[in-house]
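sry for the spam today, last one i promise. struct tokens for design, 275 residues
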């Protein structure tokens, strides 16, 4: 049995199928983790969403910012952006079933036996594992509730940009969501810079990649995340694993086998819509 963590699919089903063939994935033996952003930008978003859902208990998914964007639009909040490839999902006959499944997915997953945690964007320096799980569960509860429209109506935005324990209401939920699904750079106090999106050396003064700061996550615990294609899968840290290798941008789709940390990649040759 093996557990594979796969980076951002973003609607690239064909490379995923090829990658699963390359690693000799077998559903009776292996488990798959997906680090968020299952859809958007790629041309097979609907098919990708259906495929991952069909994996059932073999798939562990955390939500990414593109997944949340789809959910918000499907609930009448937010608008499709230039380059979005979500229209086919929104008009599909099984749309409601897909959306209901998607909003049941978590923002945080931890496997004690593998000593590995997965979120879409990472874990900020100011949170330990227990706090991350607790705060993620607040957003998850809202997503699964009858009041989810309140969240989607106020989900978009870059403020508050720094965690405070006394944050309340929808500001609190937005801040948690931004840390877990949009974070790249922060300062030593975990204040977010959500405007810089390129490589490590493009940070504004006083900011650095979140994983460059001392962490409250226990030593030896591995963190797997996606979201940041400009890293090209590299963090220079043995316990921090970046898995978005830019498949939808002409890069590759990457899987990390957690038992031995071996990586497998499949090139992406699909066309994409303009970003």
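last one done:
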């Amino acid at each position: 049995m093996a557990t594979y963590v796969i980076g951002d699919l973003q609607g690239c089903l064909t490379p995923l199928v090829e990658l699963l063939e390359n690693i000799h994935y077998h559903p009776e033996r292996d488990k798959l983790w997906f680090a968020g952003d299952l859809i958007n930008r790629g041309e097979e978003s609907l098919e990708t969403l259906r495929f991952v859902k069909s994996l059932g208990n073999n798939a562990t998914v955390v939500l990414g910012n593109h997944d949340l964007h789809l959910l918000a639009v499907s609930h009448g909040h937010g608008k499709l952006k230039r380059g979005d490839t979500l229209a086919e999902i929104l008009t599909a006959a099984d749309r409601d079933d897909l959306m209901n499944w998607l909003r049941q997915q978590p923002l945080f997953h931890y496997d004690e036996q593998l000593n590995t945690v997965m979120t879409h964007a990472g874990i900020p320096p100011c949170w330990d594992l227990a706090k991350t799980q607790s705060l993620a569960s607040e957003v998850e509860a809202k997503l699964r509730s009858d009041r989810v429209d309140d969240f989607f109506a106020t989900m978009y935005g870059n403020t508050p940009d720094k965690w405070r324990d006394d944050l309340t209401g929808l500001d609190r939920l937005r801040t948690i969501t931004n840390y877990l699904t949009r974070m790249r750079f922060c300062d030593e106090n975990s204040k977010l810079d959500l405007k810089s999106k390129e490589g490590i050396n493009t940070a504004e003064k006083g900011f650095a990649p979140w994983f460059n700061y001392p962490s409250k996550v226990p030593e030896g615990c591995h963190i797997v995340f996606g979201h940041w294609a400009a890293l090209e899968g590299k963090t220079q840290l043995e316990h921090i694993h970046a898995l978005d290798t830019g498949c939808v941008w002409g890069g590759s789709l990457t899987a990390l086998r957690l038992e031995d940390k071996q990586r497998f990649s499949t090139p992406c040759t699909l066309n994409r819509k303009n970003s």
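The radius of gyration is 17 Å. ok im logging off now
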